[in-house]
Structures are given as C-alpha cells and as structure tokens.
Amino acid sequence: MAQDLVRYQNSGDFHFVTFSCHRRQPHLLFPEAKSLFEHSLETIRIRYDFFVFGYVLMPEHVHLLVSEPKKAALSKAIQALKLSVAVQREQRPLKLKYMHRNPVTRGLVKKPEDWPWSSFHHYSTGEIGTVEVESWWTATRRESVLEKAHISKSRCGTPSTADGN
C-alpha cells in the first residue's frame, strides 16, 4: 500500500497529513498530552519554518493541514514532531520519579510520600497542595468545572443555538 502512495513535494500546495498514535492507542486522550503535542507542534513549526492552517488532535490520531517546510522535507518535519512528543512523554515520568525519589536517595526519608515538600502526594492522591501542579488530576478538575459552567449557562433560560451564541 505505501509503495503505491504518491507524494507531491515542492509543489507549494497545502498538505493534509493524518497519522495515528502507536498501535492506535489513545495516547492523546488527556489534556496534558494534547498540550504537550501542541507545544511540540509549535516548536517544530518554528524550527522547520512552515505554516499550520489547521489541526485536530483526537485521542488516537492527528490531522494537520500545513504548508511545506522551508528548511526540510515535510516528512522530516513530521518525523521530528513525532519524535519530540515521544521523547517528552518518556522523559517526564522518569524525571518525576527521579525528583520524587531524591529525598529518599539523600537519606532524608524512607519513602517519597514522607517528604512533604514535593508534588509526590499530589500525583499519588490528586490532593491539592500549596502549589498547583499540572497533572491528570488538575486537568480533570478543570474540565469538570468548565463542563458544569457550560451546563449552568445553558440552563439559565437563555436559548442556545448550534454555534453556541
């Protein structure tokens, strides 16, 4: 199938690009994963010098409408985008584990949860601490609040239209 695919490079046209997550797993299900992807897309857009005319992030795949990059082939820019997201997704948990284990390594406590000046407790329980930590818990709470606000607004007696106005 891929050998029959015809690619038109250096045509000056827009390119509609669709790709799936590894094994079509929903790696973009949570808001923090989508944010990470958006930040990577912006970094790669600047690095490879191309325009993004539109994008949609679905839980297990991505749609992009982009121009041709000025600094490399589109395939190289997409490869760099995917690699950027994959590396960041792998490094974040490793870095958090290192950080949270640091007080244990230094002999200050026996377990990471025993050190009160850390985000470990938030990640393990979702409890809100002194510092707001961006995590799955935080994103879920934020979405819940927005959802409730939307429901309240729609129930206040004002008819809504299809476009939300």
Which key phrases capture this entry?
165 residues, mainly alpha, 3-stranded antiparallel beta sheet
Describe the structure.
By secondary structure, this protein is mostly helical. It has two domains: 8-109, Alpha-Beta Plaits (2-Layer Sandwich), CATH 3.30.70.1290; 119-156. Helix content is 45%, strand content 11%. The chain has four helices and three strands. It has helices spanning 31-48, 74-105, 120-125, 136-154; strands spanning 15-20, 52-57, 61-66. The chain has a three-stranded antiparallel sheet with strand order 1-3-2, with no helix packed on it. Helix 1 (31-48) packs across helix 2 (74-105). The longest helix is centred in the middle third of the chain and has 32 residues, at 74-105. 11% of the residues are buried.
Radius of gyration: 21 Å
CATH topology value of the largest domain: Alpha-Beta Plaits
Low-confidence stretches: 156-162
> What's the CATH superfamily of the largest domain, by name?
Transposase IS200-like
Q: Main β-sheet, in a few words?
A: 3 strands, antiparallel
The strand line-up of the biggest sheet is 1-3-2
**Average predicted confidence as pLDDT:** 84
Number of domains: 2
N-to-C span? 45 Å
The CATH class designation of the largest domain is: Alpha Beta
Overall structural class, as computed from helix and strand content, comes to mainly alpha
Question: How many helical stretches?
Answer: 4
Instruction: Please tally the β strands and state the result.
Output: 3
